[in-house]
Fold:
Amino acid sequence: MEYRRRFLLEKTVVQVLAAAAVAAVYFLPALAWRPSDSHAATSFVLAGDLAGAARCALLIWALAAVVGAVTVFMRPQGAMLIVLLGAGGMALRSAQIRAWLWQQNSHIPAMYGGLAAEIVAGAAVLFVAAVVVDFTRRLVARARPGWLWRSPLEGLTDEEAASLDEGSPADIAAAARVGSYLRPGSRLGGVITGTLRWPKGKGGLSDSAKELGAVGLTAVIGMAVTMLLMQSPARGQIIFSLLAAFFVATLIANALLAPRHSLVVLAAPVAAGLLACGLGAVTSVDHSAIGWANVKLYARALPVDWLFAGGAGVLLASWVAHRHHEWKRMEKLHEGLAT
Structure:
């Protein structure tokens, strides 16, 4: 069936392009952003390398433009997921933070202030990347309108909607768009400009309240699960912990609150990262020669870890949940029409 082939094609393309993006960032332009000291952790603020930060931002935006253009037939969460996973090549190539902790042993609170600023700046870079993805998708869709992704649940007939027993065709189409971080035809995809004007949804909560609640819930659960999973300062352990923690946290938030735009929930790993920096600053009170070794494990995650690994966990969960929503209803629709 057509929708099954589309689902398989989308999953395959996301996997292939994500692997290619990671390889491209990890290997090809490494000299453009990698610290001159191969043993140093990737932090542009701590290294004082603002030029490297600018090159990193341009690299992410270029990746977003390419991905947005070639994935116009896919749901937008998948496109941004590829960008985040690709940018995660920087986190994979980074060394541990312990060298910076040792060097800044007597100034660790100030060091975490710099890391917090880097997280905020990185979040701004990712927001621009999301706009670039949206812009390139619009350009391609303007030339080839039939290529733009549409949910298979949009445009159902009255008979098909009745077989799902979930409201009118318009209700089902609106529910199918929940969780999509950019929507065709809305200003900037409705990401920011419509946040405070969304109507009340089911259950009496406004959509803006659901968005803020989803961000807070995802941040709290993600931080808690990160602390449970992160058992060593090894780079692989840190990246996996953040990816898995925010994947689980976002699935829970989606199940409880169903946020309208998944891009907004990307604020959760940003908030959790800022919290980790704050806790790292206030708990690092041991200024002895080995005080740096007592820094908590969660405070050893770098800004690139919170932004790219944590952010990828958020969008991966949103992408999976969105696909699962459609798959269940398309299967039910097919079974109902078959009988």
